[in-house]
TrEMBL record:
It comes from the Bacteria. This is L-ascorbate metabolism protein UlaG (Beta-lactamase superfamily). Pfam families: Lactamase_B_2. InterPro entries: Metallo-B-lactamas (IPR001279), RibonucZ/Hydroxyglut_hydro (IPR036866). PANTHER family: N-ACYL-PHOSPHATIDYLETHANOLAMINE-HYDROLYZING PHOSPHOLIPASE D. Residues 88-285 form the Metallo-beta-lactamase domain.
């Protein structure tokens, strides 16, 4: 691994509140009244007009042993990704519930059913969590996964949620930015900076948020979680641990009203270039209505802006991708 620069960015904690490493505005500059008017009156197709799917992952194929030099990815929707990397299986930000909300009666609802049932998941080596927002941390999924004995890796403070939901403390590893944990002798998980915020219910920023570097003996993967534009942060991560064989970055739920905390497609491409390395597999789009843009807009803009120099992996939900096979455009959102 390359050494991390001494001036690396750090999250700041003042009292019980975590702060970003650079000035970051979370609230909308136009105010929440203006957001409500947009929500009520703007006409973008924020949800599919026709049902999507059903999508089905190949349960038998996913259950087979993971080769020691494999790098495969199965997108399960939003930021939930099942990775097969160098003999391990790692699941990111598992969300299986119908709605991403404090209540399953109201709130953003799935566009399609999960392509793989929770009880059909293969045996996992780790679950990696980026932060505690409802669309990234699903207590129903956590409780099911916890019964399997899988270890959880999360940013500082997020472990309190897991313990409250019945996870044993011994199965939880909490890390600050630039701290690492081991999966065996030859595999490391490193929590790295992101520019975002946290909170469930009435609390905000009592827990940390993070991106992650998954560093195997053969392959390296970057999982961005949620982040706004953050050039110095991504540059430092790329210099420390890149280039990556696969980068996974958010492209959806972006808007000028929260320009500091979500990237959108164009800033995701900038981040990808700063991180260095192989193909970009976009996350955080096409699953829930969390913004004002049309639901297809993030991927359409990504395709326009990427150009031939950025290989894209755009699988359908549940479609298993062998990263070494090269770029993929399933166009599932057009069917």
């Amino acid at each position: 691994m390359k050494p991390v620069a001494s001036a690396r960015l750090q999250a700041v904690r003042i009292g019980k509140i975590y702060q970003n490493a650079v000035p970051t505005r979370v609230g909308p500059p136009s105010g929440y009244g203006a957001l409500l008017k947009r929500w009520l009156f703007e006409k973008a197709e924020r949800e599919p007009q026709k049902p999507l799917g059903p999508f089905r992952a190949d349960v038998a194929a996913l259950a087979a042993p993971v080769p020691a030099t494999a790098l495969r990815a199965t997108w399960l929707g939003h930021s939930s990704m099942l990775l097969e990397i160098d003999g391990r299986r790692i699941l990111t930000d598992p969300v299986w519930s119908e709605r991403v909300s404090p209540s399953q009666l109201v709130g953003p609802k799935r566009f399609f059913a999960p392509p793989l049932a929770l009880d059909k998941l293969p045996k996992l080596d780790a679950v990696v969590l980026s932060h505690d927002h409802y669309d990234h941390l699903d207590p129903a999924a956590i409780r099911v996964l916890g019964r399997t004995g899988v270890p959880f890796f999360c940013p500082l403070g997020v472990g309190a949620h897991l313990r409250r939901w019945g996870m044993p403390a011994a199965s939880i590893t909490e890390l600050s930015w630039w701290e690492s944990a081991r999966l065996g002798d030859d595999f490391a998980l490193v929590a790295t900076p992101a520019r975002h915020f946290s909170g469930r219910g009435l609390t905000s920023n009592n827990t940390l948020w993070a991106s992650w570097c998954l560093l195997g003996p053969t392959h390296k993967v970057f999982f961005g979680g949620d982040s706004g534009p953050f050039e110095e942060g991504f540059r430092q991560i790329g210099e420390a641990y890149g280039p990556f064989d696969l980068t996974m970055l958010e492209i959806g739920a972006a808007d000028p009203e929260w320009a500091d905390i979500h990237m959108g497609p164009d800033h995701a491409l900038t981040a990808h270039r700063l991180l260095g390395g192989g193909p970009l597999l976009p996350l955080h789009w096409g699953t829930f209505n969390l913004a004002f843009h049309a639901w297809r807009q993030p991927v359409q803009r990504l395709l326009e802006a990427a150009g031939p120099e950025v290989p894209l992996l755009l699988p359908a939900p549940g479609q298993r991708v062998d990263v070494a096979a090269g770029p993929l455009n399933s166009q599932w959102w057009e069917r």
